[in-house]
Design goal:
The protein is 29% helix and 14% strand. It is of the alpha/beta class and 265 residues long. The two termini are 29 Å apart.
Length: 265
């Protein structure tokens, strides 16, 4: 990936909502003594670095981020996706790598689950709905990172993933030609082939994309491969390459500018 020179995005106003639901690392104090996970486990279960990769200047864009770690409240799951039926749901018992989150007998009570949803989950989705209904925006982007190899609990464990994946719920959350234009912008700016920037494979969009898409705004889910900026060192720690993250941030900026210009928002 060739570093892009500093350059302004085309256009001065980008009427976009950007959601970054999995970039937080906050551990609710009430849960801290119950954890069976290390800090590295928490970072790998979430989307480490994404608040910086998807950060954007004040051009009419509103960025909504979460502080809480995905392992405790997953904002990209439905509010009724609870264990035991959904161990990897909104309140989880295991991580995406099958690791137990809580010590034996320390899973949150029903009352605490309700508190967590009221404090973290419902305000996030209410904020997205309020922004969409304001009339100021034309498109929502739900932004994530993905492991290079699909984790054991996925439908395709061990499968190598593309550099970028865009999901539009197979055309239901956003006009497919908008998604295709954004994919082309990523390919051109990253200098990669068609298969490196996939659409709806392996992800067609999570709960945010499906539930907020076209109600009233179109939504696209964006996934960037972590191998572009993240590695695990010999001690098992998550190491972020800040220079590569800055390049990805510039690519993201320019992709959005090109998309908005093409769609003439």
């Amino acid at each position: 990936m060739i570093p892009l020179p500093p350059q302004e995005m085309p256009g001065s106003f980008l009427p976009l909502i950007i959601s970054v639901p999995h970039g937080g690392m906050e551990i609710p104090p009430v849960l801290r003594s119950s954890l069976a996970l290390s800090e590295a486990d928490l970072r790998m279960d979430g989307d480490a670095g994404t608040p910086d990769i998807y950060r954007i200047g004040d051009r009419g864009v509103t960025v909504v981020t979460a502080s809480i770690a995905r392992a405790f409240v997953d904002l990209n799951r439905g509010p009724r996706m609870l264990p035991p039926q959904f161990p990897d749901g909104v309140i989880k018992t295991i991580t995406s790598y099958g690791q137990r989150i809580y010590l034996p007998g320390r899973f949150p009570s029903r009352e605490l689950i309700g508190t967590l949803l009221r404090r973290y989950y419902h305000p996030y989705h209410r904020r997205l709905r309020d922004l969409a209904r304001s009339g100021r925006y034309r498109l929502g982007l739900d932004c994530h990172s993905m492991a290079d190899l699909a984790p054991p609990g996925s439908l395709t464990p061990g499968r190598t993933r593309p550099l970028v994946n865009l999901g539009d719920d197979r055309g239901r959350s956003c006009p497919p030609d908008w998604t295709a234009r954004l994919a082309t912008a990523f390919r051109n700016l990253m200098g990669v082939g068609e298969s490196d920037v996939a659409v709806n494979d392996p992800f067609s969009g999570g709960y945010i994309t499906r539930s907020h898409g076209r109600q009233p705004l179109p939504w696209i889910q964006v996934e960037i491969n972590r191998r572009l900026y993240l590695r695990i060192d010999r001690q098992g720690r998550v190491v972020l390459n800040r220079d590569k993250m800055r390049v990805l941030n510039r690519i993201f900026h320019r992709c959005l500018g090109l998309l908005i210009r093409e769609l003439d928002f």
